[in-house]
Design brief:
22% helix; NUDIX hydrolase; NUDIX_hydrolase-like_dom_sf; four-stranded mixed beta sheet; three-stranded antiparallel beta sheet; 42% strand; binds magnesium ion; hydrolase; hydrolase activity; NUDIX_hydrolase_CS
Length: 184
């Protein structure tokens, strides 16, 4: 298989923020020509699909500044440096929704935006939930809602669910439902 590797010949740091950094990389293409890539470095993140015993999923509604709108999402948060993704998932779930989980399983991980960012998202399934009290960050305003799969699919249709991890969660849930029906 041909290698499409792009060797960085020069890196220009543009911005170093609290969470992300942006750099422009001059790269050598497989055909010997050069080009530039705008790259965002991100510490990585976790997301949780929290399923209640009565067959619903916990989502949070919050305003997302880059989108200038409110959407429903599964609970999520960024990783602290060196933090264990599972511990981060349990913490974010509890802070944002008040629920703690007795059971947590890693489902998969995926890159959220490989065209310009290295953000890797670990996605967990949480069950055996216990309700507690919400403790969002000082700058985080969130509202919790329990949804059925059918409600989730409707919210996706109306673009009130409109981000990749939550769409993944709905597809995962639908697939799980299907497998259960087929008795697999
Ligand atoms: Mg969050």
């Amino acid at each position: 298989m041909a290698s499409f590797y792009e060797k960085t010949v020069h890196t220009t740091p543009i911005f170093q923020g609290r969470i992300i950094s942006l750099q422009v990389e001059r790269v050598e293409l497989p055909n010997g020509k050069t080009s530039t890539r705008e790259v965002v470095k991100h510490p990585g993140a976790v997301a949780v699909m929290p399923f209640t015993n009565d067959g619903r999923m916990v989502v949070v509604r919050q305003f997302r500044k880059p989108l200038e709108k409110e959407i429903f999402e599964i609970p999520a948060g960024k990783l602290e440096k060196g933090e264990d993704p599972a511990l981060c998932a349990l913490r974010e779930l509890e802070e944002e929704t008040g629920y703690s989980a007795q059971n947590l399983q890693l489902v998969t991980s995926f890159y959220t935006s490989p065209g310009f960012a290295d953000e890797l998202l670990y996605i967990f399934e949480a069950t055996d939930l216990k309700q507690g009290s919400v403790r969002p960050d000082a700058d985080e305003f969130v509202e919790t809602r329990l949804i059925s799969l059918e409600e989730g699919l409707k919210l996706m249709e109306t673009r009130e669910i409109h981000d990749a991890k939550t769409v993944f969660a709905l597809m995962y849930w639908q697939n799980k439902r299907l497998k259960a029906r087929l008795g697999e």
